[in-house]
Amino acid sequence: MKTILAILFLAVTALADDAGFKPLFNGKDLTGWHLRREGAESSWTVADGVLKNTVEPGKHGVDLVSDAKFWNFTVKYEYMVPDGSNSGFYLRGRHEIQILGDFASGQATKGGNGAIYQHTAPSEFASKPGGEWQTVEATIIGNKITVILNGKKIHDNVECDRATGSELDGNVKEPGSFFLQGDHGTVSFRNLTVKELPKE
User: Fold this and answer.
1) What is the pTM of this model?
2) 3-state secondary structure of 30
3) Which of these, 117, 111, 189, 124, lies nearest to 152 by C-alpha position?
4) Which DSSP helix (H) or strand (E) runs through 33?
5) According to the model, what pLDDT value does residue 17 have?
6) What's the pLDDT score for residue 199?
7) I need a surface site. Which of 18, 35, 141, 146 has the fewest CB within 10 A?
8) What mean pLDDT is predicted for residues 132-158?
């Protein structure tokens, strides 16, 4: 009986944790997303609930942008990159949370995995080896960003009042789209969800 109650408690807790989160990706197709460059050859595919960008050596991919725009929110996503591959997840289309297959380096840098790209290095190194799924929970309220990578809080209310490079635009005081960087290297995403938060 105690085991059953424990399982029920965990299930209820999980549901409470996910309350208010809505899917950004339906796991079936690219509904709700568009290519950054109209008419570009897409390097994105969807299979078995996974959104994958495949960039062959010597070729260039294309970024993927959400149709919807957001201001304050918490976003959760999982990603997987091969060793050495490079991508990014942009909050409001302006602030990049770096994705990099840098496990071998063992170092947290401003250009490394989980960094607010070229702005703030992670407070600790939290990367997993290439080919493993990694988890992110990122919250942005106003100009402050908090990021949890693989269960470790690597940014805590970091002020970021400028775009960090390759941004969709420089309008940092306006809502913006998410975008998934696809022009550098192979990367896979799954379980993308967002919870909008009240305006500050």
Assistant:
1) 0.90
2) coil
3) 124
4) strand 33-35
5) 52
6) 86
7) 18
8) 98
195 φ/ψ sector (left φ>0, alpha ψ -120 to 50, else beta)? beta
Under DSSP, is residue 14 helix (H, G, I), strand (E, B) or coil? helix
Burial class (CB in 10 A: 0-12, 13-18, 19+), 50: middle
Q: Tell me the two tokens of residue 149.
A: 């990578």
Indicate if the pLDDT at residue 129 is higher than 90. Answer: yes
Domains and CATH numbers, the chain: 22-196 (2.60.120.560)
Residue 19: per-residue pLDDT: 87
**Distance separating alpha carbons of residues 151 and 4, to the nearest angstrom:** 27
For 34-92, give the DSSP string: EESSTTPPP-EEEETTEEEE---TT-----EEEEEEESSEEEEEEEE--TT-EEEEEET
CA distances from 50 to 70, 95, 112, 143, 171 (A): 23, 24, 24, 30, 31
Condensed to tens digits (0 to 9), the pLDDT of residues 67-123 reads: 999 999 999 999 999 999 999 999 999 999 999 999 999 999 999 999 999 999 999
- Please report the pLDDT score of residue 18 as a whole number: 73
Tokens of 127: 């990367």
- Determine whether 133 is exposed, middle or buried from the number of CB atoms within 10 Å of its CB (0-12, 13-18, 19+): middle
- Count CB-CB contacts under 10 A for residue 32: 14
Can you give the length of the chain in residues?
200
Q: What is the number of other CB atoms lying within 10 angstroms of the CB of residue 43?
A: 20
How many contiguous H segments (helices) and E segments (strands) does the chain have?
1, 13
